[in-house]
User: Which sequence fits this backbone?
């Protein structure tokens, strides 16, 4: 097996569970030193423990991506601990309230935008600054199928994820000649704690509805998102920048 990221450094936000945790595992398995960033201290520390158990290297950083000081500190920690920053997966996000647009709570709107959109901007801001010092790098942002289509009762989430794709394309254009590639992945519905906490995995009628939205007729697994993230960071994707890669089980073909 070719280990693609030996001695490289990857930062993964929202790495305490779900897609972020699976991606942190994948980076570590492939040789990278991983900065595990999350507001969930218990989950983040568990991710580090599990990585260390299979011989990988990881460091936990408590980080709220909506707070510029904390984001900058997470990037600084990557440099102080491992000497550089080569890759980043900006994955942290929340679902937010479910309500029609006219009834959507302003407080929930502000929180979703702060974490899911402004958080990605802040991460890119500080990651790019560091990668320019390295001479390049690769960034992947976690958008969503809801970054390319609408979805009833999810106004803030949909708006934020559309914004993530716009940010991705803009930054990719700006830094393409400076050795930094920036892409996004757009997962379909994935079996994660976010869906579980929203009660969507235990509610059989709702679960079946979600499954039937995907022509592949199942929900995705976190590792099925981690794999394309790593590919987008690898030299195998050296001519790929500014894309929003659909990883959705066919959701958007309908």
Assistant:
């Amino acid at each position: 097996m070719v280990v693609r990221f030996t001695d490289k450094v990857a930062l993964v936000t929202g790495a305490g569970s779900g897609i972020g945790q699976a991606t942190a595992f994948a980076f570590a398995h492939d040789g990278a030193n991983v900065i595990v960033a999350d507001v969930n201290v218990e989950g983040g520390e568990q991710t580090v423990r599990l990585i260390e158990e299979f011989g990988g290297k990881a460091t936990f950083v408590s980080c709220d991506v909506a707070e510029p000081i904390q984001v900058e500190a997470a990037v600084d920690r990557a440099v102080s601990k491992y000497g550089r920053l080569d890759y980043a997966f900006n994955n942290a996000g929340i679902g937010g309230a479910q309500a029609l647009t006219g009834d959507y709570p302003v407080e929930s709107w502000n929180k979703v935008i702060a974490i899911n959109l402004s958080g990605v901007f802040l991460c890119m801001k500080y990651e790019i600054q560091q990668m320019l010092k390295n001479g390049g790098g690769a960034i992947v942002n976690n958008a969503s199928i809801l970054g390319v289509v609408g979805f009833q009762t999810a106004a803030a989430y949909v708006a934020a994820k559309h914004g993530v794709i716009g940010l991705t394309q803009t930054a990719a254009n700006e830094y393409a000649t400076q050795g930094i590639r920036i892409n996004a992945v757009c997962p379909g519905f994935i079996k994660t704690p976010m869906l579980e906490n929203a009660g969507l995995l235990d509610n059989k009628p709702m679960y079946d509805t979600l499954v039937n939205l995907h022509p592949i007729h199942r929900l995705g697994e976190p590792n099925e998102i981690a794999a394309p993230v790593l590919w987008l960071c690898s030299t195998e994707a050296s001519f790929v920048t500014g894309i929003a890669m659909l990883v959705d089980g066919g959701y958007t073909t309908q």
In short: The chain has a mean pLDDT of 95. DSSP finds eight helices and seven strands in the chain. The helical segments are 18-29, 41-53, 68-82, 106-134, 155-175, 193-197, 204-212, 223-233. The longest helix spans residues 106-134.
